[in-house]
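Handout, section B. The chain below has 344 residues.
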Amino acid sequence: MKVLVTGGAGFIGSHLVEQLVDGGHEVVVLDRRPGDEPSWGDISPDVDVRRVDMTDAAEVARAVAGVDAVSHQAARVGLGVDFDDVVGYVTDNDLGTAVLLQALWRSRFAGRLVVASSMVVYGEGAYTCPTHGSVQPGPRPPEGLDAGRFDPPCPTCGADLSPATVDEDAPLDPRNTYAATKLHTEHLAWTFAREANVPAIALRYHNVYGPRMPRDTPYAGVASIFRSALASGEAPRVTEDGAQRRDFVHVTDVARANVAALLADPSIIGPFNIASGSPHTVLELARALVTAAGPRAPDPVVTGAWRVGDVRHVTASPARATADLGFRAEVTFAEGMARFASET
């Protein structure tokens, strides 16, 4: 099978390319960074790597010719700095996706399309109220966050809520610019899939970590930010009270999920949560990295600070991915964090 991987020189994309090559597939990579990413792995010289910006319609059109499947990983990720990033996010994520899908339409592409999405499309995760059952809280008010009230209350009665796992049918409520563009990526993919009559899958990644993770940038994930602090001899600085729950899933597992999606039966379509199924708090993440860094590593500092656009708890059930794609995460939290502490 000939597979186009956009963003194939990046964090997740490079691991996917390696697994596809190992599986005997022909791979074309589009990425604006090849040559600038010395740590992206020992990719086979047989891989067709093209240094292309996803908004370059002519180059993207050339790249899609003759491919059997597409994995769209290219995107600007992370919460970013502030709303001033909006044009960059929309250009890279919305326009880049639109250019790709237009090229596929014009080439009469008839294969499998897989797009990288994110758990951020859910906004807050799932919650239950002892009186009102399943509820969806709105954005947390700044005055409550300033006072240290980090958990969202029931939107009906104000009672304390219990966090639950979110499934793929949950309401979607993006809370920041990145989340909005990821949801739009999904909507564009579904529109293209219906009009072109092709099978499409969106993989909603939870908190991915592992080798080649971006570092020393405001667009990096929290695991990378904590690791960079420890490498500099500084304590990881944990926002809020550290009790916010996430699901940390290793990049090699995420790459395996992508391969499974690319090879899935054409009848399998729609969104899938890609998660470990074993949630942890952000403070547990920081402590695990401190432990792995050694006895001289400084303990985490819980700052109480908060960021606009952050949510409190979002964890998911990977049951649908297990049932339809055969996906199960293999790298445990303890094993993955121990390795991640010293990986590049």
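Note. The two ends are 31 Å apart (CA to CA). Compare this with the example in section A.
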